[in-house]
Amino acid sequence: MPKSVLMVEDDASIALVITAALEAEGYSVSSCESIAERDRLLAKGPFSLMLTDVMLTDGDGIATIGTVREQRPDMPIIILSAQNTLDTAVRASDTGAFEYFPKPFDLEELVRAVGQAIGSGDGKGIDDDDDEALEGLPLVGRSAPMQTVFRMITRVLRNDLTVLVLGESGTGKELVAEAIHQLGSRARGPFVAVNAAAIPHDLIESELFGHEKGAFTGAVARRIGKFEQASGGTLFLDEIGDMPIDAQTRLLRALQSGRVRRVGGTEEITLDCRIVAATNRDLMPLIAAGQFREDLYYRLAVVPIELPALRERRDDIEALARHFLSRAAAEGLPRRQLSAAGAELLAQQPWRGNVRELRNVMFRLALLSRDDVIDVATIEGLFGSQGVSEPAQTTGNPAGGIHAAFSAWLAGAKPPVGRLYDEALAAWERPLFEHALAATSGNQLRAAQLLGINRNTLRKRLSELSVDPEQFTART
Ligand SMILES: Nc1ncnc2c1ncn2[C@@H]1O[C@H](COP(=O)(O)OP(=O)(O)OP(=O)(O)O)[C@@H](O)[C@H]1O
Ligand SMILES: [Mg+2]
């Protein structure tokens, strides 16, 4: 019998995220949005626990908790609230609720609290089932930076505010745009994506706004633009930083007036779509250089959502890696597991290509692994031979790239927890300094110049690392 949780939450996106997390831990979740539904469900059957929001459509979840207590005196209750005022916290604790979670809360902590309240300390069924439950959730990640993103997403679901999604390549900008569409009120309408970087400059306006027959050479028939196609839904303007300046001007005009005109046309068409724009470029320098219109920037960035680089949320790497393995299996590749040590090694990679790179690596591992369990050796094999996550500027490293060398060092050195950073730096500094000293025949001033660091810094580090510069003077 799975432990059952009753969730009273009127914010659909929060309910979705919590449900996925609880189901991943093996709970069954019944969810409702109002006090009336809550009482109806409570009358029908017992629940192991109730999670409740405070501000509900038909009243206050705390003020009405007396009826719940009367019906189910022993059922633990956890209160979630966006009103993290002292007053709400006090009222929550007055009810004798097991826990009070001010929003935004840490999802993992919430799941843990549910487990404790129900009295199942061991309910930690990670690995495979976890993946399956996460399948329905478009955006994987429970780290603090991702919760900030989730929170921003939830704020734009019930309105049509223009959203600008920022972040490095491969961080999930398109996925966020899709999530906003799917979870929002325009989900029944179309999701239309336009990639400004992929369309020839002279066709961009016709692509966005459409054209009338004969508007320009080659316009043999009337064409409906993306703005019109997206009517009732969401228009995703991808790579907005690459949009030519004339098109920017027309786009701005369209956004300001709420109307578009087909190229060569006279009829004005009223816009009816939510706009989500995205770019992996830093728009500020482009604005400064006159390549991106500042007024357009402010039009688009009504709600900016900044996606963290994967290296800034290493906590999520393991869950993402497992998620992609189960995706790979769903697409017909062999089903693989990931060992704990393997997950740790993955979490240490720089992931310059972010989630996209991790996804590609996991698919490749699923395909190439000889074993059902992907562990350190498999990963090192791949990293060594193909230079996964290899920075482009690395040249002439014979051992298959810096990452292979690093992995080899790590396996041998096994630095204690808390010392990894210092020891890794020392391990890389030594050959670097030796190279610089060898190249300058032990001349510390010139070695420092070559490295681009202060001579005193070099001297200090050499002595800390016990590197003797004298040793290199002999080589002249
Ligand atoms: N949080 C996430 N959970 C699961 N999959 C993700 C997540 N973020 C990104 N992905 C996956 O990673 C890949 C890259 O994501 P996406 O295309 O959205 O990146 P992007 O930010 O638009 O990159 P670019 O700037 O290069 O266009 C996709 O396959 C996407 O499904
Ligand atoms: Mg993209």
Write the layout of secondary structure elements.
Layout: E1 4-8, H1 12-24, E2 28-32, H2 35-44, E3 49-53, E4 55-56, E5 59-60, H3 65-71, E6 77-81, H4 86-94, E7 99-102, H5 107-118, H6 128-135, H7 144-156, E8 163-166, H8 173-183, E9 191-195, H9 204-209, E10 210-211, E11 223-224, H10 226-229, E12 234-238, H11 245-257, E13 259-261, E14 268-270, E15 274-279, H12 283-288, H13 294-300, E16 303-306, H14 317-330, E17 337-338, H15 340-347, H16 354-368, E18 373-374, H17 376-386, H18 402-413, H19 420-439, H20 444-451, H21 455-464, H22 470-473
Parallel strand pairs: 1-2, 1-3, 3-6, 6-7, 8-15, 8-16, 9-12, 12-15, 17-18
Antiparallel strand pairs: 4-5, 10-11, 13-14
Bound molecules: adenosine-5'-triphosphate and magnesium ion (MG).
Question: How would you describe this structure in keywords?
Answer:
single chain, Rossmann fold, binds adenosine-5'-triphosphate, 4 domains, 18 strands, 22 helices, 5-stranded parallel β-sheet, 476 residues, binds magnesium ion, 46% helix, Helicase, Ruva Protein, domain 3, globular, alpha/beta
- Identify the bound ligands: adenosine-5'-triphosphate, magnesium ion
Which stretches are low in confidence, meaning pLDDT under 50 for 5 or more residues running? 120-137, 385-399
Percent in helix: 40-55%
Radius of gyration: 28 Å
Overall mean confidence score, pLDDT: 84
